[in-house]
Specification:
The chain has 190 residues and is α+β, with helices and mostly antiparallel strands. It has two helices and eight strands. The C terminus is likely disordered.
Length: 190
Amino acid sequence: TELGAGQVVLAAGSLSGRLAGVPADVLPPVRPVKGQVVRLTMPVRHGPFLNRTVRAVVRGSHVYLVPRENGELVIGATSEEMGWDTTVTAGGVYELLRDAHELVPGITELPLTETLAGLRPASPDNAPLLGPTELEGLLLATGHYRNGVLLTPVTGDAMAEALTTGALPEVARPFTPRRFGAAVRTEQPA
């Protein structure tokens, strides 16, 4: 199926730099960065085991603990330059649990319900790629690295303004994809 549009936002995460049909000279310089996550089940008792998100740096590594209303506790995430590998490793799980245990010792007693690995889209400077490309009508919203979920609201606002007015808001201008030029590529299209 082919759909036509005057403007298109390319927001395909770590695959943004490999999207078929996009001219090679405007594909964003996005590489995948592996992140492993562990999910635990918190006990139901008098009060929540943990009722706030905890973010910290332990032994030089970032770790976060996010309690969910359904009783799940998400612990993440590693940051590994492993290409397209999404294998969950014993070392990654160990590091997450070790660092989480340092912050909240009771963590190690909770049931382990899931382990997974995903790929973050990272630009050469690990900052987002926002706004128009050299191809008229093609805009980017990718490359957010570790901050994709956190930057979703401001990214949405910036892209809405760019789409409706033709100009990026001031706050998004440092993140234009044009800051790298066409020659910067970290991954060749498949």
